[in-house]
DNA sequence: ATTACCATTCGTCGAACAACGAAGTATACT
DNA sequence: AGTATACTTCGTTGTTCGACGAATGGTAAT
């Protein structure tokens, strides 16, 4: 009747279907997955999933990359991942059935990927450390650039200090200067209820830590810390992880 | 098959129906509205809306307060409002049809309520000012209290300095010490792409500014600044508003 | 070239669900 | 008391939409 509110309904309906929701959650690690993989993940026939994927693409939540006879899908922009996490915070955590689920839930709270960067307890600890040792400083009261296409989700940023730049370069973290993606970004954690580091820097840091062999991906979103990683994180950042 | 992820689907489906979405958006100002009001807002028959409201209550997104023969519905917890705003950031802003819609959209970006506190350009400015004049300081690297029932949405907090306490007391802002609600909370703004002040303090501040006659509510979510408010905000906080 | 594989389109079936009006149950007004 | 108002429950109708298998168009392997 009167107002110019965005209609939540269409986008929420896209996420409100079980198969599509499973797809989106599977893509939450930021990687691109093939349609067949996603079909198995969602537990429906390929033909069924194809229709779902088409709707998600049409709704601009995911995008396609064709590679040979495969089609890989990934989440288009961070704002999508953020909305998913916001919904996950709301959703009732279903009761733990098996011991495996219990340990899985514990592991995912300890350290996981969120879109393409580090989340969970480790992600939060790491951000805190970077800020406390003044490698990052909070950038406040500066006008945000509003990019309706790409950057609708970015809200609060940090800037890298010169000490931070040096330290990360020493560690071997490489940033792509041509990327239009904001360097850092708040990302809100559903398990820790606090912020962790997103943005291009968060992504590059995760990549490097895996490269160094400090972290390993297993079971999609879960991250495991190696012995080298335990030592390295303690030496480099003073992060002592729980048992 | 394997994991303990929260199922986004059920909660997203609740928001994914046009009538229910309209209801939730109407309730985003934090006030409790009667069922008949909401029926008019959603544009469906009372009997239809009754079913929708029942489902929303069952899904723990809204709660009821009975008052005589009326039933008032409101959003249960801040996390719900946050998820709605996250979705609004994602949703395509539908094209402006009329001039009235244009001015309405401009007004809602200027200053509005979000749940029960101040948002929009004014809300963001106010938070910045409070932080810059060190009435609030960012509270970092402290373990968050995880309250699965009420406080699932709180992420990052500020603490009120002693100067801040004095200043706000002088202004006549009263806080209910018995409330279990966190004093401050980040809340992310879909129009400004930056944070504004939520939590009990954000709510109390809005209440007081309206009491003082500095701000007035009109048309549900829109807030207008009075002449007294313009002077008061400039004198008290140094906030100069645009034209 | 032929065979195998990946993904999409099409047609059909079935279930889920939103919509309404009518009837029922409260509560308020006079 | 009686009447009006506010909301819910119930029964019905109709549409939407997700599910699958079969068939089609491309791409890679041999």
What do you see in this structure?
With 243 residues, the first copy, chain A, is of the alpha+beta class. Chain A has ten helices and eleven strands. The radius of gyration of chain A is 19 Å and the shape is globular. Chains A and B meet through helix 1, helix 2, helix 5, helix 6 and helix 7 of A and helix 1, helix 2, helix 5, helix 6 and helix 7 of B.
Task: Please provide a brief summary of the model.
With 243 residues, chain A is an alpha+beta fold. Helices cover 45% and strands 18% of the residues of chain A. Chain A is built from ten helices and eleven strands.
Low-confidence stretches of chain A: 140-156
**Which class do the helix and strand fractions of chain A yield?**
alpha+beta
- The chain-level mean pLDDT of chain A equals 79
The helix count of chain A comes to 10
Question: Which key phrases capture this entry?
Answer:
homodimer; 243 residues; alpha+beta; Arc Repressor Mutant, subunit A; 2 domains; three-stranded antiparallel beta sheet; two-stranded antiparallel sheet; 10 helices; 18% strand; globular; DNA-binding
Set down the secondary structure blueprint:
Two copies of one chain form a homodimer.
Chain A: H1 8-15, H2 18-26, E1 33-34, H3 35-42, H4 46-58, E2 62-67, E3 70-75, H5 78-90, H6 99-110, E4 112-114, E5 117-119, H7 120-132, E6 136-139, E7 157-160, H8 162-171, E8 185-188, E9 195-198, H9 199-211, E10 215-218, E11 222-225, H10 227-237
Helix pairs in contact in A: 2-3, 3-4
Chain B binds a DNA duplex (30 and 30 nucleotides) through residues 17, 19, 34-36, 44-54, 68-71.
